[in-house]
User: Fold DUF4233 domain-containing protein from Micromonospora echinospora.
Amino acid sequence: MTGPQQRPDADQSAGPEQVGGERRSGLRNPDKAVRGLGAGTMALEALVLLLAIQPIRVVGGDLSGAAIGAIVALAVACVVLAGMMRRPWAWHAGTVLQGLLLLSGLLHWSLFALGVMFALVWAYALHVRRVILG
Assistant:
């Protein structure tokens, strides 16, 4: 091989990611990138929720069975939504999930704090989605 080879998929011809001859973003597959962002956000939220149970119990005081059940249910919902990011309704369901996490703050104050943090992260993911996909 004497020179760099051109890959067949490196062609810059007009494709679905181009609008009016210009690419919407510098990404090869912006839809897939945005789905990965949403799925990664949901998976991270599920992991943090599950890992937060013990520290909340130790530091935050009494954590009721209802609060633990809510945490596990929300974590399971996050995992399910992470796998469903292909569907447009999953983004709306993710927003509802953030509201439910905020609402679970009625069970324990630390769940409200987690809800605020993840609501901000989710709002940023929605902003990035809107900027990339238009």
Summary: The helical segments are 30-59, 65-83, 89-103, 109-133. The first helix runs from residue 30 to 59.
